[in-house]
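Sequence in, structure out. Go.
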Amino acid sequence: MGNPGRRLLSVVGKGPQGVDRHSEPSDVSGRHKERREGRPRLAPAQADVVETHVSILFLVGEHVYKLHKPVQFGFLDFRQRTDRQADCQREVELNRRLAPDVYLGVADLTMNGEPIDHLVVMRRMPDERRLAALVEQRENLGPWLHHVAEVLVSFHKQAKRSSAIAANATDRAIRTIWEDNFDETQPFVGTILDEVDEAEIRRLVSRWIEGRKPLLDARIAAGSVCDGHGDLQAEDIFCLDDGVRILDCLEFSDRMRYGDVCADVAFLVMDLERLGHTEAASWFLHEYEELAADAFPHTLIHHYCASRAYVRAKVGCLRSAQGSGGAQFEARRLQALALSHLRKARVRILLIGGLPGSGKSTLASGLAATTGWTLIRSDEIRQGLVESAVGALSAGASGYLEGRYHPSVTGAVYQELLRRAEEALGMGESVVLDASWVDAAWRDAAGAVADRTSSDLVQFCCDASAEDAVARIVRRRSEAADISEATPEVRLAMSHSMDLWPSAELLDSSAMSPEELVSKALDLAFR
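Output:
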């Protein structure tokens, strides 16, 4: 390395057109020296320094120089200089996909002519045009969020796809990613991360993945998995007069960058929420879904938001271990955000039952309208069966256990009801099942569906006074306001054969308005 008393450092690299980019060599005191090749002496430049858990960034004039730390984590190993060099080159290559004029190249950091490290060289972006800054300033974000969504939709459409890339979005792969994160956060549980919250996070993650294979397989089959960005944060998105630049993709791990486009979108949704701007998060999500014609299932976006928040919580833990002030608080806050999204990602199967006129259909439709959950009605299925060969055989009579209420028709109705429910649950859709649920055996069958799909079973039995129930039935039939053809006689006969339902929450629709009924049921369903 030469005389240790006089060590000369220099930065040499290639710009995008092959033009050499040099910094002035300096001694250990930082004084600039004139180059021996006769190049003009440059004025000293003030450098701002930003540190992350992986890199140190030097902001000098119009440029940024990014130096990787020689660190090792579970997800990367930068201990060897050659590995850091390869990653710098990969970083430039991948980030030019979304910011081609920002990533200028890779420079060698040399000492006495020998390379000792490598730097990513970037054009410096104006801090005040960061999306995070615009959000904090409460600028008119609508147009910018639309532009960001446009850029990402185009990027995702053109991104690489292959069976190897798609393999990173299977249920098994997603579970592995979570488990790797859990391994890395384990040393911080009980000190930085809350133990109780952590246990619930791990339980909810496992339960969601167990029942969502049909959804994940369908996303893969639809071509929704690509070589994405992997680390979309509002701090790294710049809204410039000539367009949007998105920086700092996750270059060091293909496995962590490959994923569903929903996972990419969820990262920015989560980050905007973390910054305290849920309206901006919702607007961006809406813009992306509209432009991409890809409406994400609610539980999918919540699961990926949780995943992204937990990754950032892990980073906070690592930064705290490196001595970063405030990282511990941020890690715990992000852990709580991850848990909040996992709770919203829970898939539910709601049985809304009771005798005719009990208010069950009013409650079921109100819940579906409020939550966006899929409503499946036994009366609609029964009507379809009556018009089919199965129902036509017995459609002439209308008494209880006759015609459309014959046990064979009722059995077919519940089989179809549960088949549709299981299909929807596997696709991550919560369902509201509107039926009488008189027979305990069909409730048990619904419980089995919940178990197979790792869904939460919630049961409500609606009740009303006999006077109110009969009045509702008569009014409904006279106004032809509903497809249900149950009569007061059918209700009376069903009341004698309804099995006890101790596992259900009893809701008295005679004592509450429809709005109060829905509100009460929601409180119970989300507890």
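Check: The radius of gyration is 30 Å. Confidence is low (pLDDT under 50) at residues 1-9, 13-43, 389-397.
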